[in-house]
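Fold sample X.
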Amino acid sequence: MRRVSFATLMCAVLGVRLLAGTQERGGEPAFEVVSVKPNPGERVARVPGAPDRFVAEMTLRDLIRLAWELPGFRIAGTPSWAESERFVINAKAPRAPVPGEMLLMVQRMLRERFALRTHFESRDMEGYELVQVRGDRRRGLSLKPAELDCEPFLTGRRPMKESGVDDNGRLRCAPRVSTVGGVVTQHLTGANLSRLITSLENLLARSVVDRTGLQGSFDLELTFSVEGLHVANRPLPAAGSPEGPAVFTALEEQLGLRLAPARARVEVFVIDAVERPTPD
């Protein structure tokens, strides 16, 4: 995997699982071989056609976000070096991918190589509730009930390639994110609204609770300006002056949904101890 891009991070915040193979050690999935080194300032290329490998270049904070599928605002106690220093991770597993196991392997690697010790605690935070705009519960034009349930493909229970392709030759269930002139367009097909919630939490760095009452899978397209927004606690890239609507406006006009300010009890991932790893 090359240097983590905006699109890569957006796939993470949309809740798309990355997969790799595992080795069982004491009943817990683990990589067979792991190399951890400080970033040499060079791009790291992912080996194509190697599903038994996890190759990444990112900060410890971003590794934690991936491994535990957390938005940045739910991580506390991170030392400054864990947010700025990048590490190159090369890990190999001895067998084919099994859905969900990669996350457990990365968690174990962080505990073993970074001496990461953590706990969860509940905190009261400012956030939002996602509600429907119209009293008659009519949805926006860009939020439609899906003909195909893509959740089995998005969670890795079924291979993404089995979802088929659309008229443009793209995988039907694969999420798409594009950026043009400082404007982002997200496409989700056959997805639960929980994936939109995850994306909004990362973009806004606030808790978002679903109060829409909408059930099932949906196709949605959301276009908004990146101005003032962050993903993984970093400014989003913008080329030129943003011309799209703010995300709050886009939700109302395109999806018929609204973000209402609200406080919520949030489970926070607290770092008790962590150390820089000894390079291989």
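Fold sample Y, listed below.
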Amino acid sequence: MALDDTCILYIDGGTTRTRAWAAVGERVVVSERVTVGAGDTAREDSSRRLTDALHQLIRKIGEGCRAQEQPLPTLGVAAGMITSGQGLVEVPHVEAPAGPEELAKGAQTHELPDVGALPIVFVPGVRSGPPQRDREAIGESDIMRGEETLALGLAARGHLAGGGLLLSLGSHWKAVHVDADGRVAQSTSTLGGEMTQAVRSHTILASSVPRDWPSTLPADWVESGLRRSRRDGLPRALYCVRLLEQRTPSSPDDRLAFLIGAMIGASEDALLPEKGRPSSRVALVGAPALVEAWTRVAAEQGLDPVTVDEAEREAAFRTGCRSVLALRENGASALE
């Protein structure tokens, strides 16, 4: 199959949302997204909502292709939490280091009539560290789903040429190390994104910060939160957001910046690479204001940060998927 000439359905299934594109080579024909993900399956103990949402999403993709008089996708490829136990098809992680070959070997092809008529290749996630760890050493292990595909795409597109770090700032904050050969070498994950959302929505601080993300965060307030978290720890730094509302002239955006600085202060040692690594490049993806805040911290630590915007992030995800799909489709006999 000549993938560059084939209309392919790409699915990025995350924790809180699912995105899909019909594309021929680099050209996107139509795209759709829904705010349903693996988190809904976990909360409801059923994949019905995710199945129905993906069915409707694929239907809309088909309608968009027909409206543009373009061919319908004949093959799908999916990565992310959609391949977890809370997704649609659970695919075992492969061991790091992992490149397109290892992901292609671990991928599974399924046809799901409740979702759509086309076969879908489900890309596995990557596990780093020994399979079993005791409680004292568990921090040396990690797992990911979706970020490995994005990291491979970023490396292929030159953002992590020669190695470096992908810092993905979504529901989970993840640092994905890429080696000089463009393979995923290891990762470190935190609940930074989910914790930030939980604190903003379900604690007393909900009245102290804005509901929506601003386009930017005042750097001096981020720095203040960072210093407080480093000095007193995260719980105290978060309570200081409440004190700022009552005792210090400040806006909701100022207080959110302080909160984000506190979260960064609690996460930086785990996520940012140690000095002496072969590459200091850090590619950051996520909400612009959050990426901007992390970029300053990375630069202050002597790293080489580069911002990857949403359009390029999506293109890199598809590139990573296509590299796996090419091996799966063209070299299936050698990979089995």
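Sample Y note: Residues 3-159+308-335 form a domain with the Nucleotidyltransferase; domain 5 fold (CATH 3.30.420.300).
Also: The chain has two domains: 3-159+308-335, 192-307.
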